[in-house]
Each structure stands twice: as structure tokens, then as C-alpha cells.
TrEMBL record:
Superkingdom in the source lineage: Bacteria
InterPro entries: ABC_transp_unknown, Class_I_gatase-like, DUF7088
Domain ABC-type uncharacterised transport system stretches: 215-498
Protein name: GldG family protein
Keyword terms, alphabetized: Membrane, Transmembrane, Transmembrane helix
Length: 556
């Protein structure tokens, strides 16, 4: 009786072998590691196998002697192998992440610039995402973006807060969150709110956590210059709102400066700091007063920096001015703008549709142009040229035209559409259309002739860094909002931001590029269009008929 009972227990254990085996496999796939439940199933499987084998040796022997059981064993081994492979693939898939972005501009990947920022992180950064039910989609986009950052470094983590919950409301109040949705990054006791919930905004916020110096960029106004806002006047897209946004996204504070009142956009007095401030002159179309020129000159000679734009269209205006040249001539031998319009005749340097839309040669000689133009060209529409002057020590050419180009300098000929080269008046290329210039600062606040300071007209602050820097562009469109030849075309964005970084001596600064959904339309000629039409309308039916005829003929 005792042996019979033991045998029955063994048989019962045998009935449990298959269910325990299946349960073990399922639990392993589910948990992907040896959780307690997995260990219990495996131990149970082992005990049942041992009991069944020990109490029913004859049955086990008979089972393995039959042909059917051998097939079952082989099948079981195959199933176990397949299941093992599936488990292994799942484990590898969870531990090894492979990202492939096939879009032209890597729209769904973070840029190399952001990766550089993440590589420099020395302390953990927490990203706080605040949202409500009305901004759930933006919350998901923010989470996807932060996960891209997390994939690059272990120093990024995030937490989500629902503004409609008590915890979220309290945290938002503590962090002074005012909009929905909002992303706030914090590192230790420091925090920064992302201006936009995208890569530019998030990366800039991370950069600002460690920023030690506020660098300001002022668009000079008061003389018909283009400003940092969108201009919807007759000349479509000639504003610099995108350029302004690019600077903001790259950790610069952007404002305007009225040279008459010395005030910013908020009408408050501005105290210029030569070591950190940059002035941008975008094609002034009316003369500057002598005191304005003196003020700018003093600021620059104290080690200030400026970016000058020339617009050839001013040549055709009755109030054409050389205000920028009036500033530049304060330095002996400094470069200056040559008034006129550059026309290009070399097909390799110009747009096939318009000889005034240049594709200039990029002189990759310094930080401004390093890496620019290798993949995408600079699109440079409607340009004058630059005379490099006699002081060539600090002069660097950035963009040049071909030897086949020339500059028209006669306003009368231009107004009458006389574009042919005039050997008596015009100058042949190569022509310089963008350049940089660096010279030693020559004035200090203690000894220099600075404008008299008042409550509304403060003088430039001293403490320059010993260098005066200029960047000159003989055209304005490349950095404008123009959709066809503006800042979002080719390498224009990087050229503009790199120039600002060079002026600020921030050569290790991060350039966070705009990402646009580019399309690549196929342009076909009239002959190709005709070929495609007749091929589809007549060619395919004739081909089908011919194949059918051949088949019929062979069968016949």
C-alpha cells in the first residue's frame, strides 16, 4: 500500500511537469529576470521531475523507448531552443537601443551640439514637466525629447507634474510656473525655465544653468535699419526675427539700441559693456549724426564688437548713405564697404535662376567658417563687396566670388537695368562679400574721449578685453526672414551664429540649429516630362499587348 501511494504521488507530480514548465517559460519572458515567482516555478518543476523519475522508473524507461516519445523529446528541445532565442532577443532588445533617423535634417534626433552640452555635464540635471489635461500631447512630446537626452547621458532624469493635482500645483507654485505646459530644469539649487518645449529651448535652459556671463546683442535702430522683428512691409521677409530667435536660442539676450537716446526696447538707458556686448547694424538707410558715430567709435575702440550689414538697394535711393563706412574709417587701414551690386557669371557660383543670388566660395580659415559649406552652400542674395583696406594683419576673408564676377557701381546704369560689364566703371572679381577684422583696442575709459554721460545717455562702460572685432557682410538677405534666400537656407544659419560667437569670443559656444521639414522635389525638364507621358500612356499598353502576343504565338 505504501509503495502504491508513493507511486500515485509521483504520477501526480508527473501531471504537473508540463504546466510548471509552461509557467516557468511565461514568467521568464514576462519578468526577464529571476524574480521570486520564477524561482518558485523552476523549483517546482525540478521537484516534480525528480519525484516522477524516482517513483516511476519503469514508466520513464518505457516512455523513452517509444518512437513517439523520442519525437516528443526532439520537438520539446526544438521548442525550448526557439523559446530561448525569443527570450534572448527580447532581453537584448531591452538592453541595446539602436536609433536610426532617416530624415534629411535629423528632425527626430538631438543635434551634435546638444550632445556636446550633455557630455560636459558634471552634475545631475532634473527636468520637471508641468502639464494639464489640455496639454497632454505637448507633455508626450516633452517626454520623448527628454528620453532622447537620457539615452545620451545618465545625468538627465525627469519628473512629470499634473497642474491639476495638489502635488503639481504646489511644485509649480514653488518654481514660479506661470504657463501650461512648462518645462523647468534644475541642478542643485539653480533652476531655469525652458523658453520653448523643444531641443533649442531645453538645451539652452541646461546651458543657462552654468552660464556665468550675460552676453547681449543689440540691433541698432534710428536710421532705417532692419530690426529683430518680422517686417511685413513691401519687402517681404526682410526682418531679422528668425535671426533674433536664433540668438535667443543660443544663450544671447537680444534687444534694440537707439543711438539717439541710448535706450533699449524698454526705453530704459543702456550701459554698453565692450567685453560682452555686440552691436548689429543692419543696413542703415539714413545718415548718423556725428555724436552717434563718436559714441559707437569710442565703444568699439574700448574693445567692443560689431556686425555690419550693407544693402546694395540703398545705392538706388536718393538718401543713400555711407554711415557704416564713416564708422569704419575711424581705423586707419580698416576694411570698408564698396557700394554697388555684385553680378556673378560663373555657373558654379550663382543660382541658375538669378545672377544676383550668389553661391560664394567659403574661405574655411577660422572659427566662423570652419565646417560651413561642406554639405550645404551659403545662399547669398543681392550683395555688394568689401575693400579689405591696407591693414591686412587682422583681416580675414570669409566669402568670395569667382574671377568671372564683377560689381556694378553706377546707380544710373543699375536703375536702367544695364547689367553688362563696364570696364571703365566696374571691378572684376574675385570679390570679397563677407569678412572679419580684428585690431587692438586703443581707448580706455580713463584716457579716451568718450561722450558726456547723462541720465539718459550713459557712456560705454570700460573694461574691454583688449580686442576690437568686426564682422562685415555685404548683403542682408542671407540672415533675414526671407523664405527663399534667408537664414533657413543652406548654411546661412550657422554662418550667422558662428559670426556672433566669434565676436563674443565664445568659440566653444554651442550652435543649436533650427530643424525644418525639408522636402526634396524632383525637377524634370520638358523633354523628360514628354518621355514619361508617352511611356505611361502608350508605352505600357503596347508592352502588355506585345507580351500577350508573344504568349499567344508560342501557344499557337
Amino acid at each position: 500500500m505504501r509503495g502504491s501511494a508513493t507511486k500515485q504521488v509521483g504520477l501526480f507530480a508527473g501531471y504537473l511537469i508540463v504546466p510548471l514548465f509552461i509557467a516557468s517559460i511565461i514568467s521568464l519572458i514576462t519578468f526577464q529576470k529571476f524574480e521570486p515567482i520564477v524561482i518558485v516555478f523552476l523549483l517546482g518543476l525540478g521537484i516534480c521531475l525528480a519525484l516522477f523519475t524516482a517513483t516511476n522508473p519503469q514508466t520513464v524507461g518505457m516512455i523513452f523507448r517509444t518512437h513517439a516519445v523520442r519525437n516528443v523529446v526532439v520537438t520539446t528541445i526544438i521548442v525550448i531552443s526557439v523559446v530561448g532565442i525569443v527570450v534572448l532577443v527580447n532581453v537584448l532588445a531591452t538592453r541595446i537601443t539602436v536609433r536610426v533617423d532617416t530624415t534629411k535634417n535629423q528632425t527626430f534626433s538631438i543635434s551634435d551640439s546638444t550632445v556636446k552640452v550633455l557630455d560636459k555635464l558634471s552634475e545631475p540635471v532634473k527636468v520637471n514637466i508641468f502639464y494639464s489635461t489640455t496639454s497632454a500631447s505637448q507633455r508626450d512630446s516633452a517626454i520623448d525629447l527628454v528620453n532622447e537626452y537620457k539615452a545620451r547621458t545618465d545625468k538627465i532624469n525627469y519628473q512629470i507634474y499634473d497642474l491639476q493635482s495638489l502635488e503639481g500645483f504646489t511644485k509649480a507654485r514653488d518654481m514660479k510656473v506661470a504657463t501650461d505646459p512648462t518645462v523647468v530644469v534644475e541642478q542643485g539649487t539653480k533652476q531655469e525655465t525652458a523658453a520653448t518645449i523643444d531641443e533649442q529651448g531645453l538645451t539652452r535652459a541646461i546651458i543657462n544653468l552654468g552660464a556665468k556671463v550675460d552676453r547681449r546683442v543689440f540691433f541698432v535702430t534710428g536710421h532705417g535699419e532692419r530690426g529683430p522683428t518680422f517686417n511685413s512691409d513691401a519687402t517681404q521677409g526682410d526682418g531679422f526675427s528668425m535671426a533674433s530667435a536664433a540668438l535667443t536660442n543660443n544663450n544671447y539676450k537680444v534687444d534694440t539700441l537707439d543711438l539717439i537716446t541710448r535706450t533699449g526696447g524698454d526705453k530704459k538707458p543702456v550701459q554698453l559693456v565692450p567685453a560682452t556686448d555686440i552691436l548689429i547694424f543692419v543696413a542703415p538707410s539714413s545718415p548718423m549724426k556725428s555724436e552717434e558715430i563718436q559714441f559707437v567709435t569710442t565703444y568699439l575702440k574700448q574693445g567692443g564688437r560689431a556686425m555690419f550689414f550693407y544693402d546694395p538697394a540703398n545705392l538706388l535711393k536718393s538718401n543713400s548713405t555711407t554711415s557704416i563706412n564713416d564708422i569704419l574709417k575711424q581705423w586707419d587701414g580698416a576694411p570698408k564697404f564698396k557700394e554697388g551690386l555684385v553680378l556673378e557669371t560663373d555657373p558654379g557660383y550663382v543660382s541658375p535662376q538669378n545672377p544676383t543670388v550668389l553661391i560664394p566660395n567659403v574661405e574655411a580659415t577660422q572659427n566662423i567658417t570652419r565646417g560651413i559649406g561642406s554639405n550645404q552652400p551659403v545662399v547669398y542674395a543681392i550683395s555688394g563687396s568689401i575693400d579689405k583696406g591696407t591693414d591686412t594683419t587682422g583681416f580675414t576673408s570669409l566669402l568670395t566670388t569667382s574671377a568671372s564676377s564683377y560689381i556694378k557701381t553706377d546707380a544710373t546704369q543699375l536703375s536702367q537695368n544695364q547689367a553688362a560689364f563696364d570696364a571703365q566703371k566696374d571691378q572684376r572679381g574675385p570679390l570679397i562679400v563677407a569678412a572679419s577684422y580684428e585690431t587692438a583696442a586703443s581707448v580706455s575709459a580713463a584716457t579716451g574721449a568718450t561722450p558726456t554721460a547723462t541720465a539718459t545717455t550713459p557712456t560705454p562702460a570700460p573694461t574691454g578685453n583688449g580686442k576690437t572685432r568686426f564682422v562685415l557682410f555685404a548683403g542682408t538677405n542671407f540672415a533675414s526672414d526671407n523664405t527663399s534666400v534667408g537664414i533657413n537656407q543652406g548654411s546661412n544659419f550657422n554662418l550667422f551664429v558662428n559670426s556672433i560667437n566669434w565676436l563674443a569670443e565664445a568659440n566653444d559656444a554651442i550652435v543649436i540649429n533650427n530643424k525644418t521639414q525639408d522636402t526634396s522635389p524632383i525637377t524634370i525638364s520638358k523633354a523628360q516630362d514628354t518621355f514619361i507621358y508617352y511611356s505611361v500612356v502608350f508605352g505600357l499598353p503596347i508592352l502588355v499587348f506585345f507580351i500577350g502576343f508573344v504568349v499567344w504565338w508560342r501557344r499557337r
